[in-house]
Amino acid sequence: MTTITLVRGDITRQTVDAIVNAANSSLLGGGGVDGAIHRRGGPAILEECRALRASRYGKGLPTGRAVATTAGELDARWVIHTVGPVHSGSEDRSELLASCYRESLRVADELGARTVAFPAISTGVYRWPMDDAARIAVETVRSARTAVEEVRFVLFDDRAYETFAARLN
């Protein structure tokens, strides 16, 4: 049984086996969570991302997929990069968002990670409404078949924390 916990704070300050990065498909860093993870984790993460781009992901990591690298200087063993979908008012992309959580947990299982910290994927620049993102995240993690013992949702502000707390209860 996976325990789900909520933390209001900075995902780059978490002590876990794996930190999930809400990456862009280039894997080469960006803004928001992605930029923060690359800045705090240092150049080793970008180096491994470049190697992934040069080998398996020449066109970038597809939306809904996940891949792991070192965590560099973060207090974790791995960073699991996943590419969330951009929210659309005309097309239902919920399955792609759910896939980010499922695929990240699948990669965590392959690595042997037992504690995983997730951000609220796609809720920043990709404009996914927080309430719907929280519903998808919590339902997907609750129904996932995984050996991960703790999933920690690390939420940047009070609004996100309260929204996830309401969905968890």
Automatic annotation (TrEMBL):
Pfam family, one: Macro
Name used for this protein in its record: O-acetyl-ADP-ribose deacetylase
SMART domains: A1pp (SM00506)
InterPro entries per record: Macro_dom, Macro_dom-like
Residue ranges of domain Macro in the record: 1-169
Domain of life assignment: Bacteria
